[in-house]
Specification:
Helix content: 55-70%
Largest sheet: none
Strand content: under 5%
Radius of gyration: 34 Å
Order of helices and strands: HHH
Shape: elongated
Number of helices: 3
Length: about 120
């Protein structure tokens, strides 16, 4: 009876050791993958900062003004005049009966949703 108990205990210890060994390597692999992802995120953020800086540099008003002046013949760009803007009464809104009904209104920032 004791020998059976010893054998079962030894098998349980061996099984738990195998499980701990396997979990250790799985954890190390997950940590390694997480570290790689963190490095990739850092590289991507750095690249995004560089692209934003390049975009800001290329969209400087003085540079765009020079480009517009150089390409005036091709583009025909002129400064905006007040008469080029429309008035609110010129906007064609669809009639109320053509609007799609809101079937499931949701609450936004604490305001009650209007039921049609």
């Amino acid at each position: 009876m004791r020998s059976l108990f010893y054998v079962l205990t030894a098998l349980a210890v061996i099984g738990l050791a195998f499980w701990a060994y396997r979990e250790n390597y799985r954890t190390q692999a997950a940590l390694s993958k997480a570290e790689q992802l963190q490095h990739e995120i850092a590289r991507t953020r750095q690249r995004l900062r560089v692209l934003n800086a390049e975009w800001a540099y290329l969209n400087r008003p003085e540079r765009l003004m020079e480009l517009a002046e150089l390409n005036f013949d091709k583009l025909g760009l002129l400064p905006l005049q007040p008469y080029q803007f429309g008035r609110i009464d010129q906007v064609a809104y669809p009639p109320k009966d053509e609007l799609l009904p809101i079937l499931n209104p949701i609450e936004v920032s604490g305001m009650e949703a209007d039921q049609p």
